[in-house]
Write a structure and sequence with these properties.
The structure is a single chain. By secondary structure, the protein is of the alpha+beta class. It folds into two domains: 103 residues, no CATH class; 27 residues, no CATH class.
Length: 155
């Protein structure tokens, strides 16, 4: 079951800070311990959420707008929304919701406010099926791209 949202991260809000940004994926595995001391594992789910620890540095006006947007548009964090987020797949809009109430705004420096939160991403972004079977091509893709575009630009 895939869900969507028509709520977007407002354009005037900043991107997630790099510092302190962490990602933790929920486990798709089911592990059963055996009497022999060994364990069996199997995939229980094919789509699991990821939790990102994030922070944003905002001006006073952005912090005011954020708190109102969170309360009114997201119904105090209940609603899913689309937000640009950088992952190993690149930057793109992902379906997100706040996992719990955000922390802050905390005054940082003279006139900036920091807001921190754990956000839940609906599904971890991955390459299309089949690319996991060819990791060498993915790792070398920048070389292949450069060779194709320099050697055969008209193609």
């Amino acid at each position: 079951m895939a869900i969507t949202s028509n709520i977007d991260w407002p354009q005037g809000f900043p991107c997630v800070l790099r510092e302190g940004h962490t990602t933790r994926h929920a486990s798709p595995l089911l592990r059963t311990s055996m009497a022999s001391g060994r364990a069996r594992q199997r995939r229980k789910f094919t789509s699991v959420p990821s939790v990102h620890t994030c922070a944003w540095l905002m001006t006073q006006a952005q912090a005011q707008a954020f708190e109102s947007w969170f309360a009114e548009t997201l119904v105090d964090g209940v609603e899913w929304f689309n937000m640009p987020l950088r992952t190993p797949m690149g930057s793109g809009k992902l379906l997100i919701r706040f996992k719990e109430m955000y922390e802050g705004p905390d005054l940082v420096g003279i006139d900036r406010w920091q807001i921190s939160a754990s956000i839940e991403v609906w599904a971890r972004p991955l390459l299309p099926p089949g690319w996991g079977l060819l990791p060498e091509l993915v790792i070398g893709s920048s070389i292949i791209d450069r060779a194709v575009n320099q050697e055969w630009p008209e193609a």
